[in-house]
Write a structure and sequence with these properties.
The chain is an alpha+beta fold. It is built from eight helices and 15 strands. Helix content is about 25%, strand content about 25%.
Length: about 290
């Protein structure tokens, strides 16, 4: 099978021609998708037949080891009984809309901050695969920012300045900026890790900024200066020229490279409409 890729943005993101990911096992086809990820960073697949089992199975075929140490796991087990299948929804175990004061809803609101999945663990997340099961009639889009293009647009002296820097990433930090409160035990489980500020794709050699709302500080820098630099880089990286906005349809599966992009959810009437998506994220470890 030869896949087609239709660009969705001048810099990155593409829609892939008809293919059923639930049944794809051919190595050549999987390699075509991987090559598309290296080129575009974000791939959109329409009209997928995935259920929870086949989504997990595809993720393992595509990139191996799955991320299961999610931030939400510190708050309690999810409704699927499998932490590798992340619940991106506004409903409870009965399928009822979460109440406005529900702790899970408050926690999920931080998805509207620019972030990369699983940057707060080691190894970090590589590919995320988000499957749309139920979408609201309006709103609830996802925006993606091309961090490779953001890097390329920096002046050479700024690039040289950033190359050796590292930042501490903590999902507790990003939630706390929105007023979310953790118990001492939860905070201990979410201490975070140190990550480089610049990543390099081992296949293409392209560099990218590695930023997120999870980035709390630059290591070995005074706190005010480090946070100011992170804020300035976030503003640079998320300017409109670097952003693709995806409007979801039920049946969509979108794959993105967390080492080359950032993303964020956009608001919708979450007290009125259901929005149910499932995300699986692989870890940045060699495939076996």
């Amino acid at each position: 099978m030869t896949l087609s890729f239709r660009p969705l943005h001048p810099l990155f993101a593409a829609e892939v021609g008809a293919v059923d990911l639930a049944t794809v096992v051919a190595p050549d086809t999987l390699d075509e998708i991987r090559a598309g990820m290296h080129r575009y960073g974000v791939l959109v697949f329409r009209a997928q037949t995935l259920d929870d089992h086949t989504q997990l199975a595809f993720a393992e075929r595509f990139d191996g080891c799955l991320h299961a140490k999610t931030g939400a796991a510190a708050l309690g087990a999810n409704r699927f009984g499998n932490e590798a299948l992340v619940d991106i929804s506004n409903v409870d175990e009965r399928g009822d809309l979460l109440m406005a004061d529900d702790r899970r809803r408050h926690y999920g609101l931080a998805n509207r901050l620019w972030h990369t999945d699983a940057s707060f663990v080691e190894p970090p997340g590589r590919y995320s695969m988000l499957s749309a099961r139920i979408v609201p009639p309006v709103g609830g889009d996802t925006e993606f920012a091309d961090m490779r293009a953001a890097w390329d647009a920096l002046a050479p002296d700024m690039q040289s300045r950033l190359l050796p820097l590292q930042a501490h990433h903590s999902i507790a930090y990003s939630r706390q900026t929105l007023g979310f409160e953790f118990s001492a035990e939860e905070a201990e489980r979410l201490r975070g890790v140190i990550q480089p500020l610049v990543r390099v794709n081992a296949v293409t050699g392209r560099r990218s900024l590695y930023l997120a709302s999870h980035a709390s500080r630059i290591v070995d820098w005074p706190l005010p200066e480090g946070r100011l630099l992170l804020r300035e880089l976030m503003e640079h990286a998320t300017q409109p020229a670097f952003v693709y906005r995806h409007q979801w349809r039920a049946g969509d599966l979108v794959i993105w490279d967390n080492l080359a992009t950032m993303h964020r959810a956009t608001p919708f009437a979450d007290g009125e409409y259901r929005r149910e998506l499932r995300r699986v994220t692989t870890l940045d470890v060699p495939r076996v």
